[in-house]
Amino acid sequence: MMCILEQERAIAERATLSGVVVWAGPQQCRVIRDDTALEAEALVRRQRPVVGDRVRLISRSEEVLEVAGIEPRRTRLSRPRVMDAGAEQVIVANVDVVAVVVSILTPPLHPRLIDRYLVAIQYGGAEAALVLNKMDLADAEQRSAAGKILAPYRAIGVPFFPVSTLTGEGIDLLRDHLARKTSAFVGHSGVGKSALVNALYPEIGQQVGDVWKGYGRGTHTTTVSDLFRLPDGGALIDTPGIRSFGIWNVPREELRNYFPEFEECRCRFRDCMHLAEPGCGVREAAESGEISSARYDAYLRLLE
Ligand SMILES: Nc1nc2c(ncn2[C@@H]2O[C@H](COP(=O)(O)OP(=O)(O)O)[C@@H](O)[C@H]2O)c(=O)[nH]1
Ligand SMILES: [Mg+2]
Ligand SMILES: [Zn+2]
Questions:
Q1: Looking at the CA of 269, which ligand is closest?
Q2: What's this model's pTM, rounded to 2 decimal places?
Q3: Are 11 and 58 in contact (CB under 8 A)?
Q4: Residue 272's domain is classified under what CATH number?
Q5: Could you identify the atom of ligand 1 that is nearest to the CA of residue 191?
Q6: What's the rounded Cα separation, in Å, for the pair 99 and 126?
Q7: Disulfide: which of 2, 164, 209, 282 matches 136 by Cβ 3.0-4.6 Å?
Q8: How far does the centroid of ligand 3 lie from the alpha carbon of residue 277, in Å?
Q9: DSSP β-bridge partners for residue 92
Q10: Residue range 34-80, pLDDT digits in tens
């Protein structure tokens, strides 16, 4: 019989095994530790590990590893659960950059999704980037129309990358921006998130084939997030396409903080919600075109 102290020490020793979650299923996850992929059961009370999480593992038996705990998340991207809007769904954890991917055509550009993502990204503590893919499909006129639609995001300083995975346009600049960081690609299905991973790091396509063989997963449609480690120490996370993206947990009075352009309007009311208050500087700036009225409308819609 081990005394309690010995038992605790043994558990502590076993629990020092830790790593990063690269794939998370409903009850299991895959954790990379050094260069080894480990399968672990993930039944942590209430909190489920997600891709990007650092977890501590414990061996429950000779063969079975179990997630014993999740390290506090440095950043996160969350949304309300689809089937249970009162609960949080963390999409990725501990990313430096969340790159919102849209395509210039097919599917058409929907900037309102970008507004929601930007709020959630800032709220979760990561940096945002905006990737406009499939530039090869667009003529000069379509390019300039997209440029106008996306101008408000450039105006607030979101790094912007027009790219084509087909021609390679803009891919080097994007790779430089993401170098040595952990980044996640998010956006609608079909915009080219998985194609981007391949265009940025063709050798990862190889990794997909090698590492994930035998797990019975489709090769092309991403149904869960995957984390790919990069040769430079960074990582890329490919996420499944989403139909809708809602804001999780941002209090109404805080929403305005995630629209950086409002600060420049110098609304003279300190606690202004920038709604219908007479003399509101933000409203006036939106009416005069000093800030984007589409962004202001997006704010109003999110407040509702
Ligand atoms: N024309 C064009 N098609 C692209 C480009 N990038 C991806 N695609 C196509 O868009 C479709 C969806 O790409 P995929 O990477 O699966 O999108 P995801 O759902 O966001 O991961 C595929 O048929 C790709 O071949 C691009 O730069 N130009
Ligand atoms: Mg995909
Ligand atoms: Zn105001």
A1: 3
A2: 0.91
A3: yes
A4: 1.10.40.50
A5: 20
A6: 10
A7: 164
A8: 7
A9: 77
A10: 888 899 998 777 788 999 999 999 888 888 899 999 999 999 999 99
Judged by phi (left if over 0) then psi (alpha if -120 to 50, else beta), residue 52 lies in left
Verify that 121 and 150 share a domain, yes or no. yes
- 234's torsion region: left (phi>0), alpha (psi -120 to 50) or beta? beta
CB-ligand 1 contact for 75 (6 Å cutoff): no
Name the helix (H) or strand (E) containing 143: helix 140-155
N-to-C CA span, the chain: 62
pLDDT tens digits, one per residue of 189-219 = 999 999 999 999 998 865 543 444 333 344 4
Residues 6+ apart with CB under 8 A from 258: 118, 119, 122, 123, 250
Which domain covers residue 138, as residue numbers?
A: 76-238
Based on the fold, state whether residues 65 and 85 are members of the same structural domain: no
Q: Phi first, then psi: give them for residue 78, nearest 5 degrees.
A: -125, 160
The helix or strand, by DSSP H or E, that contains position 152, with its residue range, turns out to be helix 140-155
pLDDT tens column, 136-155? 999 999 999 999 999 999 99
Nearest to 119 by CA among 150, 67, 69, 78: 78
193/107 Cα distance (integer angstroms): 13
For residues 249 and 272, what is the distance between their CA atoms, to the nearest angstrom? 20
> For residue 260, is it within any domain?
yes
Note whether 28 and 100 are same-domain residues: no
Same domain, 111 and 232: yes
For residue 237, the surrounding DSSP H or E stretch is strand 235-238
| Per-position DSSP letters for 2-46, written without gaps between them | --HHHHHHHHHHHTT-EEEEEEE-SSEEEEEETTEEEEEE---SS
